[in-house]
Amino acid sequence: MIETLKEILHSSKHPKWYEPLRSVATARFKKIELPTKKNEQWKYANLRWVESHQWSKNKKTKKSDVEGLLKSYQLDSKDVDYICIDGNFQSINDSLDIAFENMQNKIHVPSHDRNVTLFDILLFAGLDDAIQLNFSKKRKLHVVFLATTKHQWHNIQLNLNVLKDSSDNQIKISVIYPDSTLNLSINSHIQSKSSLDLMTWTAPSSKIILNHYADAKKKSRLNGFFYNFESSWVHERHNIDVDAEADVHLSGLLLPKNKDFDDKEIDIIHHSPKGKSHQMFYSVGRDKGKAVFHGRAIVKQTAPGTDARQLAHALMLSEECQIFSRPELEIDIDDVRCQHGSSVGQIDEKSLLYLRSRGIPYELAKNMIICGFIEEVILLLPEIWQDWIHQRVKFHGFSI
Amino acid sequence: MFEIKNLSADIDGKTILKGIDLKVNPGEVHAIMGPNGSGKSTMAGVISGNEDYNITAGKILLEGSDLHGLLPEERAGEGVFLAFQYPVAISGVNNMVFLQASLNSIRKYKGLEPLDAFDCIELIKNKMKLLHMNPELLQRGLNDGFSGGEKKRNEILQMLLLEPKLAILDETDSGLDIDALKTVAEGVNAMRDEKRSFIVVTHYQRLLDYIIPDVVHILKDGKIVLTGDYTLAQRLEKEGYGWLK
Amino acid sequence: MSKLQISEQYKYGFESNVPSDALPPGLNEGVIRAISAKKNEPPFLLEWRLKAYRHWLKMVEPNWAKLNINPIDFNAISYFSKPKSQVDRPKSLDEVDPELLRTYERLGIPLHEQKMLAGVAMDAVFDSVSVATTFKEKLADAGVIFLPFSEAVEKHPDLIKKYMGTVIPYRDNFFAALNSAVFSDGSFVYIPPGVRCPMELSTYFRINAMNTGQFERTLIIADKGSYVSYLEGCSAPMRDENQLHAAVVELVAHEDSEIKYSTVQNWYPGDENGKGGIYNFVTKRGDCREARSKISWTQVETGSAITWKYPSVILKGDHSSGSFYSVAVVNNYQQADTGTKMVHIGKNTSSTIVSKGISTGKGQNTYRGLVKVSPLAKNARNHTECDSLLLSDTCGAHTFPYIEVSHPSAQVEHEATTSKISEQELFYCRQRGLSEEEAVNLIVNGFCKTVFQELPMEFAVEAQKLLEISLEGSVG
Which architecture characterizes domain B2-239 according to CATH? Predict the structure, then answer.
């Protein structure tokens, strides 16, 4: 067992009914080791920080501290609907939603045979809090995860339940974990004919392990936007089931700098006819940054008429950055339209010449092209989120 | 006045231009015609500062000062404009943002105050009307999803905005239908005055029916082999390039 | 589909009645010593085989490929079989067993020089042993060495010692280790500096005996400034049990040299219920060892029950280039997991990958390819095109590209599409009077054209025919 993670197991509180689940998970956790490079999912990840880090316990925090923290990221507490401070959800007063103590049968420890890693088991062995949010028509929420001191590690489960026939739902998830780690599991159930826009953003120097499972039912729509680019270490795993005529779009930016690591592993599985899925992830590597895109579109024999696409493009701006791209297709039926495009390269010389011949100086022209590249992804965001992401991208060092 | 003296250039070790001399007085329109591969586009590229080409001899002078060593953006600032044969499309770069950046970069080069966003839009929209362009094109990515005609009009729009001293039109007529061709020609003719020079590079005489040149040069194997007036273009149209030795 | 039709489809599925001298099934050090002794090998080779065997014992079969494989009992296989009449190698074609020659004629590969395809020198490997190499003198005049591997061991031990295992070490993978321990024969080619090999070189492999594994080993060396084009063809009789083929092919390209390696692989694919067929586990790798060297792999894979092969190029030399052109067809219960690795190490290296996968019946076709640009590989270029065509609603097409870039000057592009045959194209052809089957053939041929163009003429025709045969009855 990983000694440094022991503390996490002792620090969590939970309702009584959870006790048996927790002991099962803890027993399994004690037998499990950190994934190595031989594990395909973690092939490119550096996990040494897990073993060498000292974790500290949560402390009581004043409300004024919270407001100040939010402000420093241009967030206003008035615009926050739910907040999880140091691993505990607060101010939950909506009757639609379900707190940890009432989530019996809504939390399942993954079975042995799945491709389960240390972090999945740790989530259940050290589960700090859980919540289910229900979405009926046009519900728009902002949920913030906040660590008020350094060196914390929390394990949280968030269930999103989008009710049948309810459209225009949105949830923005902000993770502010400076020098701390959030191990977050999101379960989205997008019921038939409903829709959800889901965005995640992570503050600088936070580490996030995101395990996202989504079930997009018949004729539903899921737009997932993963903008954890400011984070110093990201590992995302998305597992999306696409039902008949459902439409799933996942997009995001990977903009690693310094020694940042950003890893996205995506499985989109089409079980039923006429589903649609698009994956669009763009990377820009700087310094010693490392970006990994490992996307998979799986089309089962029961899913004729599927349209599955992947786009993964990357720009390399420094000598020592690294880009890994694995756009995979697994197709078991003929009536499909599947394609992927992936490229790794530099700023296009022709575009650069064009801008310069219109009088735009070299550095500006270069920045315009890089920002234009990033913009292609941002344009997919709902308009109300675009401005804020523009600010964050600018803060991250990309502006004209 | 624009002048090229004994210009030779190569690309990847292959010589394309072999000693070109050309003199364009202010207010004149010169047409450069020639068969495929004669070096027409290379000449346009060399003048605008495309670094793929390597100048082995000669000089390029705009109002007496040598353009040698100037970056493409500096040449643009000096007043050289190239309407590209194949304008690039950059989907994420907003057309409006691009036009504004271009306009203000050149103003800055000339030591002028930048125009604010409002004045820019005003100016751009007025010029677009002249070219019968759909204002929606401003909100799209630069040339992104533009039709052939829209791209070429966008080039001429930039020419109108930047008011260059020397404008080079590289095969601007290719891929244009007759209406678009007329609009483009109107745009060019509206700018003709005694301070400005034009070089129109074209394979066919068609465009020259609408933009009447003062002088016609024929380029072949990297050299100007014949110079004449408008009638030369008409002869080429009738007889092709075959009779040239 | 009737048995008769199937036999027609696999027209190479006859069995030759040639008595064979085989080792009993099973694998241990004794067997390896026996193989080595039968071939009068020098001690260094036996030593190498034993090292490989001991290493193999510590390895496990790879399981990462998208393949469903019945467990292989490595002790049920005979690791050496040679036609009896070959015990003393024939000095010329006249001494070759006439039954054997007839076998080759039925395969469409006449070994008699007068009947031979113009300009193709042929080596034929029957079960484990090379039976006849043609055009020996003409090649010798040019200084080209083209010999059965075992003969090369006798005559040119220095070259073998210098190059064998330098591209694919015996530790490389499970099947390469097994091959290194038990390999029987294969081809050896050496092109001296500055020589352009005067004709296409070709080897035809055939597995005939029952319960026999074929473990051939090919080594091709192109010295400075030389050029060679090498063709490889394969077939096997129809048998209900699976037979194992685990070959190793090593290519070494020195400065300014070029090697073109083409394969038309038509091992028995098994019957329509997935019974029988060859298990084809092959390790092929080329080493662009020095500046401006070129290696190109072209493969048309229509046979085998299981195909596991990734012809790769290590681009070490500056300005070296590698390419991989592949057509892989799976029908019935065939499974293919094939692709390439392009490893860019030198400066200004380039690689091209064109992969066309065609799946029908219950076939499973996987492209798996790595493009790796190492931290020192300045200005590396790669372009990959990877298309899959699906002809039935029960087949599968899978694409697993691995792109790893560690130098910012690299330009790597990957495009892939997966689709079924276009109804519009089909309709167009049928409106012009073609039957549906003819139309499919026409469209499939068009789909594969960029790969066929890379094959030498004679092979391109054979490949097209093979494709038609493989897809017969797959429409509708």
Answer: 3-Layer(aba) Sandwich (3.40)
